[in-house]
Write a structure and sequence with these properties.
By secondary structure, this protein is mainly β. The chain has one helix at 3-7; strands at residues 28-29, 33-37, 48-49, 52-61, 70-75, 81-86, 90-99, 102-113, 130-136, 139-144, 149-156, 159-160, 165-167, 182-187, 198-206, 212-216, 223-227, 234-240, 246-254, 258-266, 276-277, 279-285, 294-301, 307-313, 323-330. Strands 2, 3, 4, 23, 24 and 25 form a six-stranded antiparallel beta sheet that branches. Strands 1-8-7-6-5 form a five-stranded antiparallel beta sheet, with no helix packed on it. A hairpin with a 2-residue loop joins strand 3 (48-49) and strand 4 (52-61).
Length: 332
């Protein structure tokens, strides 16, 4: 989704959408420039914000025409190599570079268009508005927001392949709002109450009580549940912590040009059919801090044992916005 920019069927893995025949389906290297920063709050050396402690971050820039719009990512190597999806129909890959524990930039950044079952590049964003991502066992699970679906793709060191299959996401299509549909895919830990099951959560598709639609896609707790919507925040991504709790990333957009970032920690054992889940707010930030349209989150464990939360923004390819990478240590 694209708040700041706005201020100024079925079984689709087998169809063939409009094609961009001139574009290769192979990954291509994109030249980027990183601008590190060491503070989160403007004009302050404060590092503790709620239950998160700021480590560092950087702004990522590129002159490439297809750069930006990053909506979800997952590390394939803790704090290092990553894979992500952009909501204009691209995969992206790279590795976070560090000075000790401090993130300073990205190396080997590549992009690859999402393709259909025949391996053809899809040019119409309506079909490839990718928003959520899970990576597990050589398979990426991607949620698409506009023409709603959840699809699996094979991934390897060479990039991503053609779709493998579409999954039943359980939520009735009539309940999914156009451009506010499934925003999050996350996988519960194998030893948790979800037993490794994947979940999906909508951005702002709500029921009559104002709760956000979500579902467990598989396993003993398969079924629809809801997320309590609070304070006009919308869901942008989520990831499970090692203990089975869900860390939910949220965004609030207020006119004329203001955006907020919030994270909630939700007891994962309460995720089950019929439940309405809510949780503790860990951080609530506005534009007095270094945030933008924060859309992507992942959690990983550092070599010293610290649990690190990484967050990335979607710049919507707007000159008013930035692609930011932020890191925090989660403090209990």
């Amino acid at each position: 989704m694209k708040p700041l920019a706005l201020a100024l069927g079925l079984g689709l893995s087998a169809w063939c959408a409009p094609l961009a025949l001139a574009e290769s389906s192979a990954p291509v290297t994109v030249e980027t420039r990183s601008i590190p920063f060491s503070t989160f709050a403007a004009g302050s050396s404060q590092v503790r914000f709620g239950k998160l402690e700021f480590v560092g971050g950087f702004e990522l820039r590129s002159r490439a025409s297809k750069f930006g719009q990053m909506s979800a990512f997952r590390f394939t190597e803790p704090g290092g190599q990553f894979i992500g999806v952009s909501d204009h129909g691209y995969w992206f890959f790279g590795s976070v570079e560090r000075d000790g524990n401090i993130p300073v930039g990205v190396s080997d950044f590549r992009k690859q268009p999402i393709v259909d079952a025949a391996g053809n590049v899809i040019s119409d964003k309506h079909y490839v508005d990718a928003e959520g991502l899970d990576v597990h066992g050589g398979v990426a699970t991607v949620s698409f927001e506009r023409l709603a679906r959840v699809t699996e793709y094979p991934i390897s060191a060479h990039g991503a392949g053609a779709p493998l299959r579409d999954l039943d996401f359980l939520i009735p299509r009539r309940e999914l709002r156009y451009n506010s549909g499934m925003e999050t895919v996350a996988r519960g830990p194998a030893g948790s109450a979800l037993q490794g099951a994947r979940i999906v959560i909508a951005e702002r598709s709500i029921d009559q009580e104002g709760n956000i639609f979500a579902s467990v896609l598989e396993g003993p707790r398969k079924g629809i549940f809801k997320v309590k919507r609070r304070d006009d925040f919308d869901v942008t991504d989520g990831v499970f912590l090692p203990d089975g709790d869900l860390l939910l990333l949220e965004r609030r957009f207020t006119r004329p040009i203001s955006v907020g970032m919030r994270m909630r920690r939700i007891d994962g054992s309460k995720i089950k059919p019929g439940a309405v889940i809510d949780g503790e707010v860990l951080i609530d930030a506005d534009l007095s801090a270094r945030i933008d349209n924060m859309e992507a989150i992942d959690v990983w464990q550092r070599e010293d044992g610290e649990l690190v939360v990484s967050v990335v923004s979607d710049d919507n390819q707007s000159f008013l916005q930035r692609t930011l990478y932020l890191e925090f240590v989660l403090r209990e």
